[in-house]
Write a structure and sequence with these properties.
Layout (H helix, E strand, L loop, with lengths): L2 E10 L2 H12 L2 E6 L2 E5 L9 E6 L10 E5 L4 H14 L2 E2 L10 E4 L5 E4 L12 E8 L2 H12 L3 E4 L3 E4 L8 E6 L10 E7 L5 H11 L2 E2 L13 E4 L5 E5 L1 H7 L1
Parallel strand pairs: 1-4, 5-8, 9-12, 13-16
Antiparallel strand pairs: 1-13, 2-3, 3-4, 5-9, 6-7, 7-8, 10-11, 11-12, 14-15, 15-16
Length: 251
């Protein structure tokens, strides 16, 4: 597996404030803080290597994010407790057209949508984050790309929903939900990949291109991001291929 899923990235106006919200809500810890980056990570028992990274936003949030987190709960009482906890920490209820559903849709202090799910058997062993969910026009096609990119095999695939999970069968799912108006380009949340230290980045880029990615030309990259290659998946969702030395030295 030449590349791995490194983190879910939040672009934030106030990275530390949003990081603190998610750390408190999930029961995770801030593991790194520097002027342009805050990392929040789970304890080892809560998933293999899942991390949230918070970076300064380069643009305002416009519309609904195409990526969001689904949070797991153990019981209906636990679901209510988590919703109340999120609201007390600064979340708010939002209506994105979900109608009458058993889960609760909220937004964090900067408007990033997430769901607190009712108890579901498939998520009993995921830890706090049940799934990383991506809106897509073609779930099977986009999941195929991310399966190649992450090395995660399919757990299910269909016309409206496709899912991947770590080969170890641990941690959060990566799910793709058919959404006709999914849009394209970069929103406030995205995925980042990291290559293993011994791998050749040029070879990894060629492999990702063959799977359907394209490189995005950035004439003036942000400070300290110039060596992290920016790409887009087959539906133009941006992601970065992190420099392995930088990622592993901060992991």
């Amino acid at each position: 597996m030449p590349t791995r899923l490194a983190c879910v990235v939040f672009d934030a106006d106030r990275p530390r404030l949003v990081a603190d919200f998610w750390a408190e809500l999930l029961g995770w810890s801030v593991t790194l803080e520097c002027p342009d980056r805050v990392d929040v990570a789970a304890c080892e028992a809560d998933g293999p290597g899942l991390a949230l990274t918070f970076l300064p936003a380069l643009r305002a949030k416009i519309g609904k994010n195409r990526l969001h987190l689904d949070l797991a709960t153990r019981s209906l009482d636990h679901q209510r407790t988590q919703v109340d906890r999120a609201l007390a920490l600064g979340a708010r209820r939002v209506n994105i057209g979900q109608g009458a559903v058993p889960w609760t849709v909220l937004a964090d202090p900067e408007g990033n949508e997430f769901c607190v799910l009712e108890p579901r058997e498939e998520y009993v062993d995921t830890g706090a984050v049940a799934a990383i969910v991506v809106d897509t026009r073609d779930p099977a096609r986009l999941a195929e790309f991310w399966s190649v990119a992450t090395g995660w095999p399919f757990t299910h695939r269909g016309a409206r929903l496709a899912g991947l999970r770590s080969p170890a069968g641990l941690g959060s799912w990566l799910e793709f939900v058919q959404t006709p108006d999914a849009g394209s380009g970069r929103t406030r949340l995205h995925l980042d990949l990291a290559s293993f230290p011994a791998d050749n980045q040029a070879a990894e880029v060629a492999r990702l291109h063959a799977a359907g990615a394209r490189t995005i030309d950035r004439a003036a990259p942000a400070p300290d991001r110039e060596t992290d290659l920016v790409l887009a998946d087959p539906e133009d969702n941006e992601f970065r291929l992190l420099r392995s030395a930088r990622f592993w030295s901060n992991a």
